[in-house]
Amino acid sequence: MKARRRIPLLKKMLAQFGIEEERVRLEWVSASEGDRFAMLVNEMTEALRRLGPLHRNGAKSEKTGPAEELTALEQEAHV
Asked: Do the Cβ atoms of 47 and 66 come closer than 8 Å?
């Protein structure tokens, strides 16, 4: 499959921009695997929260941590 061959290339390209390869993941899930799909989404969400927000220059914010920035974004979304 083309996607499987392209993921390593994508990860290399993202690394050039300072983006962690852990932000990209390819999983195959069939329509009958709802529980597995939910588990994978939850795992990826937690992994992204641990990594924190993505900044344009690839640098992490030193002023706030991932939890504080996530809370700020959640609050903005509810305004």
From this structure: no
Task: Say if residues 29 and 36 touch (Cβ distance below 8 Å).
Answer: yes
Give me the phi and psi of 34, to 5 degrees please: -60, -45
Question: Please, are residues 49 and 71 in contact by the beta-carbon 8 Å criterion?
Answer: no
Task: Quickly tell me which residue has 């641990």 as its tokens.
Answer: 50
pLDDT tens by residue, 3-30? 999 999 999 999 999 899 999 999 999 9
DSSP 3-state percent helix, strand, coil across the chain (nearest 5): 60, 0, 40
Distance CA 55, CA 66 (A): 12
> Which of these, 40, 37, 56, lies nearest to 48 by C-alpha position?
40
